[in-house]
Amino acid sequence: MLPEIEQYFRLEKLPHMWCPGCGNGIVLHCLVKAIDKLCLDQDRTVMVSGIGCAARASGYLDFDTLHTTHGRALAFATGVKFAKPELNVFVLTGDGDCTAIGGNHFIHAARRNINLTTIVFNNNIYGMTGGQYSPMTPNACRATTSPYGNLERPFNLAELAIAAGATFVGRATTYHTKQLTDLIIEGYKNNGFSLIEVVTHCPTSFGRHNKMGSPADMLKWQRDHGVTAMRYENLSPEERSDKFIVGVLHRCEAPEYTAEYQKLQEKFRGR
Fold it and tell me: Are strands 45-49 and 64-67 parallel, antiparallel or unpaired?
């Protein structure tokens, strides 16, 4: 482990429990690199996670952390931000945790524009609980609960966040590590709800069921299918069918909810 990031980990909790070749460690590395570049105070930074493979990330980080109930990471994070708005709050969640049982909390956190930096580890499957398909599993892909192919259409998580009111939305992959670190930094600097969707790989559950090869092969797939918005615009409809855009997808300004709540408190405090 690099000396400059070692301070951010609970070394006694390592090695981690993720499968060999899992992309979650890459996401975690990019997160702590972003925190280091931002020079954030560890005593004023909070990590909140739910349940699942991605949610185990908070336990390895040497910050104040909350490992919460399934789908409720954003609800707990909202409470932390309301109680102590001066804290830096990051939410670490998976595609199942965030978009299935946690979907309602997700859209309302985005709608309220609460100043949270939410990192979704999107490996397209419930990895920890048996390899079931999630709301992010692509159509026709296999899982333990869709052995003949998934009939459902997946969410476009970025578009969902934008429609719900998020003021910063970005997407990267575990192949594009520098871009991922930069997006986390930009998301943190946004004064409002930020979503960073990370297309990561689960070689054990998703990869095996869908014959995607080794973890290295899955990283090469990300390299070949994640494209910039400019490149995407120049592709034909047929070429776009198996590509997705990476980079900053959306940025706008809107009132931040906890700041507006504080203004309301101050308005009526003297009455």
Answer: parallel
What confidence tens digit (pLDDT) does each residue in 108-136 have?
999 999 999 999 999 999 998 889 999 99
Name residue, tokens 């981690």.
16
Find all residues with CB under 8 Å of 127, minimum gap 6, and list them: 19, 22, 52, 53, 94, 202, 204, 205, 206
pTM of the model: 0.96
Q: 176: which residues sit within 8 A by CB, 6+ positions away?
A: 222, 223, 226, 246
Q: Mapping DSSP to helix (H, G, I), strand (E, B) and coil, where does residue 37 land?
A: helix
Q: Where are the chain's structural domains?
A: 26-252
CA distance 217 to 246: 19
* Range 26-252: architecture per CATH: 3-Layer(aba) Sandwich (3.40)
